[in-house]
């Protein structure tokens, strides 16, 4: 018999090693074909057997040892199969009920007709609805009818929304698309389906963005979802100034609200809703102002232009110049009358009334723009100029050192609002423009600290500086990080505080946890530099336009 030869590919190597065996009984020597002591033979089946220099190996697939091993392996495998559980998803009761009773309408005992469609349903399931439960349990004529015609007064409700609402009575969960949530909410409210109403509310809160926020806000007000309304208001306060966009300004319009609410409200009422919403935002001390109060005025000017010219399409960069041009042409027609005093502008008075004008006219460049635009009535400005003149005299001649205690009402209604965006981590130092009664406040961000410094002599200042030994400021500092949809990721606040600083003294006002530092980081501050105005002898106060 000739020699047995086998070719084996070693698993760990990169090349095939050819092993040649000799006939049985041949001696193994140096350079011979036998395996050296302790070598391994790779037999078919993937086993590796140790052998001595004088041992023989017959690499045959039908050897007794391999048969025994294969028998053992097969037995082990069968044992594992017998003891391994197998999961097969059976059709659930809920799915069966939904398919058989709702979709197929089997054993239906009542028909519901609405919007030209008909549903074969079951009274026992419809009684989960407060609407139908009252209908069937009382002395209403419908309690004994086999077919009921529903009147749908709400134009937000369509056939698809009714399909989802009726179907929710036959299943455990409902998938709600954000684009359909308002229609489904309207149907759920009409049919008094509390569980579905709650699910709509959760869907709305999770999907607030620039395209949905105004529709959600108005719908939440219409259908009584206060928690959703609050969330939408918070989103707008955080994003109106930090993420200005043409789309957002247009969403805050009567036309957008009308699309959401349909004909539930007459047109004048819809306009009032939008004006009321913008008024809430502008008067709030929680508005995240970027830069200074003048930027709030500029945002309002752009928003008002888009309400008056809703067909305008362009970029945010073009918006301000287009608005200035449009209002400039109107000034020629009404030379001595402010725009807010003519018929086109009167609707916007409640919003502009809540601008904190005292912090706009304190900066020369801003005051000149206000005068040039002629949007705001001169009577408003005259009152503010008078108010600020007396405040300056109090600071200078009455030696007013600033607020002595926290007056939350005064801080929320009359504090200076300003802010800054930090695009990335680093070192920053800045001041906000305007005359602040001789208090030159420098703000520094460095090494996760935010520091306030009262600058007097150390660094140049473009205005006059108070040299009083001590000055007080009332303040609140807030930080926020927002994701791409404007949703709040993290936030932090100091709350309202009184800070006393000597000349050129600095104070750490916030130490940030590095885990909270998600950039861009938005910083917003509220300040009061002087004490609230004291009452006069007759019990009155100097006129203040901030209502």
Write up what this structure looks like:
There is one protein chain. Strands 8, 12, 13, 14 and 16 form a 5-stranded antiparallel β-sheet that branches. The protein is globular, with a radius of gyration of 39 Å. The protein folds into 3 domains: 91-207, Potassium Channel Kv1.1, Chain A; 230-397, no CATH class; 408-528, Apoptosis, Tumor Necrosis Factor Receptor Associated Protein 2, Chain A. Helix 6 packs antiparallel against helix 7 (194-206) and helix 8 (213-223) runs antiparallel to helix 9 (226-239). With 547 residues, the chain is α+β, with helices and mostly antiparallel strands. Mean pLDDT is 84; it is low at 1-63, 263-267 and 539-547. It has helices spanning 64-83, 93-103, 123-126, 130-137, 159-167, 181-191, 194-206, 213-223, 226-239, 246-251, 254-261, 267-283, 293-308, 316-333, 343-346, 349-352, 364-373, 378-397, 408-414, and strands at 5-9, 16-20, 40-42, 48-50, 110-114, 117-121, 147-149, 416-422, 428-430, 440-446, 449-455, 470-482, 488-493, 497-502, 506-511, 521-528. It is 39% helix and 17% strand. The N and C termini lie far apart (114 Å). It has 19 helices and 16 strands.
Strand content: 15-25%
Largest sheet: 5 strands, antiparallel
Distance between the termini: 114 Å
Any idea what the radius of gyration is?
A: 39 Å
Number of helices: 19
Low-confidence runs of at least 5 consecutive residues: 1-63, 263-267, 539-547
DSSP strand count? 16
Q: How much helix is in the residues?
A: 25-40%
Number of domains: 3
Overall pLDDT metric:
84
Provide the structure class.
alpha+beta
Shape: globular
């Amino acid at each position: 018999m000739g020699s047995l030869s086998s070719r084996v590919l070693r698993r760990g190597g990169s090349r095939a090693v050819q092993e040649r065996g000799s006939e049985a009984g041949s001696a193994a020597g140096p350079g011979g074909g036998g395996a050296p002591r302790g070598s391994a033979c790779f037999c078919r089946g993937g086993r590796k057997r140790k052998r001595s220099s004088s041992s023989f190996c017959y690499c045959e697939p039908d050897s007794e040892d391999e048969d025994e091993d294969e028998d053992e392996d097969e037995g082990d495998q069968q044992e594992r199969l017998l003891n391994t559980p197998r999961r097969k998803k059976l059709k659930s009761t809920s799915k069966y009920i939904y398919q058989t009773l709702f979709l197929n309408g089997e054993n239906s005992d009542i028909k519901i007709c609405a919007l030209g469609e008909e549903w074969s349903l079951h009274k026992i399931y419809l009684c989960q609805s407060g609407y139908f439960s009252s209908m069937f349990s009382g002395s209403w004529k419908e309690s004994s009818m086999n077919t009921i015609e529903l009147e749908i007064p709400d134009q937000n409700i369509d056939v698809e929304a009714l399909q989802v609402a009726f179907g929710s009575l036959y299943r455990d969960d409902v998938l709600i698309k954000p684009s359909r949530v308002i229609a489904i909410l309207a149907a759920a409210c009409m049919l008094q389906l509390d569980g579905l109403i709650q699910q709509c509310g959760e869907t709305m809160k999770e999907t607030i963005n620039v395209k949905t926020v105004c529709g959600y806000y108005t719908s939440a007000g219409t259908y009584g979802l206060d928690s959703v309304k609050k969330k939408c208001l918070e989103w707008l306060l955080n994003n109106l100034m930090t993420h200005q966009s043409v789309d957002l300004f247009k969403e805050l319009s009567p036309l957008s609200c009308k699309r959401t609410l349909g004909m539930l409200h007459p047109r004048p009422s819809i306009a009032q809703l939008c004006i009321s919403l913008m008024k809430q935002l502008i008067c709030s001390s929680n508005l995240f102002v970027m830069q200074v109060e003048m930027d709030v005025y500029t945002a309002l000017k752009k928003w008002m232009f888009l309400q008056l010219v809703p067909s305008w399409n362009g970029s945010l960069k073009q918006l301000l110049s287009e608005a200035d041009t449009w209002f400039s042409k109107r000034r020629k027609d009404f030379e001595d009358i402010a725009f807010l005093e003519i018929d086109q502008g009167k609707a916007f008075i409640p919003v502009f009334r809540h601008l904190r004008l005292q912090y706009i006219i304190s900066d020369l460049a801003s005051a000149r723009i206000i005068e040039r635009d002629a949007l705001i009535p001169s009577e408003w400005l005259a009152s503010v100029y008078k108010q600020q003149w007396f405040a300056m005299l109090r600071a200078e001649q009455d030696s007013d050192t600033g607020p002595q205690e926290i007056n939350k009402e005064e801080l929320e209604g009359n504090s200076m609002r300003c802010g800054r965006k930090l695009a990335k981590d680093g070192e920053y130092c800045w001041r906000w423009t305007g005359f602040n009664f001789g208090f030159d406040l420098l703000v520094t961000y460095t090494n996760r600290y935010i520091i306030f410094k009262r600058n007097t002599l150390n660094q140049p200042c473009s205005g006059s500086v108070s040299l009083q030994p001590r000055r007080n400021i009332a303040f609140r500092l807030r930080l926020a990080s927002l994701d791409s949809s404007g949703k709040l990721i993290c936030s932090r606040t100091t709350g309202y505080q009184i800070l006393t600083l000597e000349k050129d003294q600095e104070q750490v006002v916030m130490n940030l946890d590095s885990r909270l530092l998600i950039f861009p980081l938005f910083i917003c501050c509220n300040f009061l530099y002087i004490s609230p105005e004291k009452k006069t002898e007759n019990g009155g106060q100097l006129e203040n336009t901030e209502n």
